[in-house]
Design goal:
Elements: E1 2-7, H1 12-23, E2 27-32, H2 36-46, E3 50-53, H3 62-67, E4 70-74, H4 85-91, E5 96-103, E6 113-120, H5 126-151, H6 176-179, H7 188-197, E7 204-208, E8 211-216, E9 219-221, E10 231-235, E11 238-242, E12 247-250, E13 252-255, E14 267-268, H8 269-273, H9 288-291, E15 300-305, E16 308-313, H10 322-336, E17 342-345, H11 358-363, H12 367-386, E18 392-397, E19 401-402, H13 404-410, E20 414-418, E21 422-424, H14 438-446, H15 448-457, E22 461-462, H16 463-469, E23 474-476, H17 480-496, H18 500-517, H19 520-536, H20 542-550, H21 560-563
Parallel strand pairs: 1-2, 1-3, 3-4, 16-17, 17-18, 18-20, 19-21, 20-23
Antiparallel strand pairs: 4-5, 5-6, 7-8, 8-13, 9-12, 10-11, 11-12, 13-14, 15-16, 21-22
Helix pairs in contact: 1-5, 4-7, 10-12, 12-19, 14-15
The protein binds coenzyme A.
Coenzyme A binds at residues 11-12, 127, 200-201, 266, 317-319, 354-359, 402-404, 424, 427, 430, 432.
């Protein structure tokens, strides 16, 4: 079928639906919802048999939904309506929620139902939930609805609040007044629910040291305590704040935009506070090994099980600043000293990595210089992985990766991927040539022609398509927990296999042979020569593209790489 995706942004779910529908053999076009006239023109040109809106915050014009079947993905169970479905679900502690595919009609979210799928509400932030449980349920519902539409004869179910399975209702926008934290009275569980319901947008509006900030993210602290509301510690850029019965970590803050002032954006909390943070707030570090045994916030955890080392990292938004790359490299170097044959890298859930930290770069006094430091720190990490010859290294991707984050994964010997993962192995959209030794690893895996196509097309690739290309080695089904239980099993088998010693010998030989043909330092120098131009040459588009990304500037038209039907 010719299916046109209409979306407010080409976000994770839209990318996933795009990848899944293409894998199912459909011809898929994308149009960003940037105006009714542009949409009408695109429909006339693309002639879709079905229009699907995976993530739409505006209404479809009446002439479009009367002339075409338009299916809307709504992140709520049957009967749920309104713009803040997930916020309410998390705020109220719903154990289970749903995704419903309904037909566009005049009233928002009130059309007949084509499919609905439940999902468990994990204890995490809204956007993480959206990229994981919601996305998985949405894809199931979309594929069911598309199949029902394609085969014909299916009568969508009118919304009827008298039916026993229609338990949702119309709810208002989740305003800041519902989100406000009463630090003196709210216990940790309540504070976490409020933080999670607001993450990553819009954040919880709050006050710190006399200024207003939006709080983003939140994690329980198991030991530190203090006067409710007081900032009691910092760690790797995050703040620890006492609640009525415990404490929580706040990794990121965004200043409230002053009337007529410049737009603001998220930053690591300590950086956002700057000189406002009192000097007597102590930095309370935790080692990756200790963090693995505690319920505290840490971007890094390291543990060993049955001769396998697991280095877990989790960076908000998958973004890795210079400091985060260096800390991960230090943890990696430590892991390399351990007596394990197999080392597995990757977060428990959500983004594996999205490359250098564009927000931290944007906030730097000299963004070009900070970009340079960041890419070099990233390259040092990738180099350390590429040159590890006494262990088999596995990248385990429970969640998506993009740009340098994909290439970070590819530095490992094997890349294992959850089936739901979407990869964006390209840098072009940020105006960058790219580094992370991609000119060595990408063609080596997929061949020169495919490497060129992937980097030029700049389209998302679903996990199964990535496996077919050789971009990843294996895909594993299930949710993040099921994925990790398979990863653990298979890593232990690898570690116990008699071939492991042989594989390590071969690995060492291959690295030496590759080095003799062209040293890693030459790949790095060539890539960085181009990156230097991207960062420091005045005519380059990178700084403007980064600024647009960080400030979430909507494009004027659907980008051309998306308008070609695939
Ligand atoms: N630096 C800083 N923040 C980043 C980031 C990066 N490299 N990559 C993602 N983020 C942030 C986003 O701003 C967003 O923040 P928010 O929660 O405040 O909205 C969050 O992570 C999730 O990203 P989002 O864009 O909403 O997710 P998505 O699934 O729709 O799209 C990407 C994912 C990776 C395709 C998109 O974020 C992207 O293009 N990132 C930039 C990749 C890049 O060019 N890296 C630099 C070159 S190595």
């Amino acid at each position: 079928m010719r299916i046109l995706l209409v979306a407010s942004a080409f976000n994770s779910l839209t990318q996933r639906v795009h990848a899944e529908l293409r894998e199912h053999g459909h011809q898929v076009g994308v149009e960003l919802a940037l105006g009714d006239e542009a949409l009408r023109a695109r429909i006339a040109e693309f002639r879709p048999e079905l229009i699907l809106a995976p993530m739409l915050t505006t209404a479809i014009p009446e002439d479009v939904w009367t002339a075409h079947t338009v299916l809307i993905v709504h992140p709520g169970p049957k009967g749920d309506r309104g713009p803040s479905s997930l916020d309410w679900a998390i705020h109220e502690g719903a154990p289970e929620w749903g995704v419903t595919v309904l037909q566009a009609v005049a009233e928002m979210d009130a059309g007949p139902i084509w499919a609905s799928e439940p999902f468990p509400v994990a204890a995490c932030g809204k956007s993480e939930l959206y990229r994981n449980e919601v996305a998985d349920a949405a894809v199931r519902a979309v594929l069911t609805a598309v199949h029902r539409f394609a085969t014909g004869g299916f009568e969508p179910e009118p919304l009827d609040y008298d039916r026993p399975d229609v338990r949702g209702r119309l709810r208002p926008y989740h305003e800041q007044r519902y989100r406000r934290i009463d630090w003196a009275a709210d216990d940790t569980a309540t504070v976490l629910r409020k933080l999670r319901a607001a993450d990553s947008q819009p954040g919880v509006l709050d006050e710190l040291f006399g200024r207003e900030y939006f709080l983003h993210g939140g994690h329980r602290e198991d030991r530190l305590r203090g006067t409710p509301g007081a900032v009691i510690a910092t760690r790797d850029g995050a703040l620890c704040r006492a609640t009525a019965d415990g404490a929580v970590w706040l990794p990121q803050l965004r200043s409230r935009r002053a009337p007529g002032g410049p737009p603001t954006f998220k930053q690591p909390a300590v950086a956002a506070l700057g000189a406002d943070l009192p000097a007597d707030v102590p930095e309370v570090p935790v080692s990756p090994i200790e963090a693995a045994t505690r319920d505290t916030w840490s971007e890094l955890r390291y543990r060993e099980e049955n001769e396998v080392g697991y280095l877990e990292f989790a960076f908000p938004g998958g973004a890795m600043s210079t400091g985060q790359c260096r800390r991960l490299l230090a943890a990696y170097r430590y892991a390399c000293t351990r007596p394990v044959g197999v080392l597995v890298l990757g977060p428990a859930r959500d983004f594996f990595s999205n490359g250098i930290h564009l927000n931290v770069i944007e906030a730097a006094a000299d963004p070009a210089v900070e970009s340079w430091h960041n890419i070099n720190a990233m390259n040092d990490l990738v180099e350390a992985i590429l040159t590890t010859t006494d262990k088999l290294v596995v990248s385990a991707l429970a969640g998506n990766a993009a740009a340098g984050g994909v290439l970070l994964a590819l530095a490992a010997d094997e890349v294992w991927c959850r089936e739901s993962v979407v990869l964006n192995p390209h840098y072009r959209l940020m105006g960058l040539h790219g580094s992370e030794y991609w000119t060595y690893t990408l063609p080596r895996r997929v061949g020169t022609a495919a490497a060129e196509r992937l980097t030029n097309e700049a389209l998302p690739v679903g996990a199964r398509a990535a496996a077919a290309l050789g971009l990843v080695d294996r895909t594993l089904p299930g949710d993040a927990a099921q994925f990790w239980s398979r990863v653990r099993q298979d890593a232990e088998n690898l570690s116990a296999a008699t071939e492991l010693a042989d594989r390590l010998v071969q690995k060492k030989r291959r690295r030496a042979a590759d080095e003799a043909i062209k040293p890693l330092s030459a790949y790095r120098a060539e890539e960085l020569a181009q990156m230097r131009r991207n960062f420091f040459h005045p005519g380059e588009p990178y700084h403007q593209l980064r600024r647009n990304f960080v400030h979430k500037v909507r494009p004027a038209a659907t980008p051309s790489h998306l308008t070609i039907a695939r």
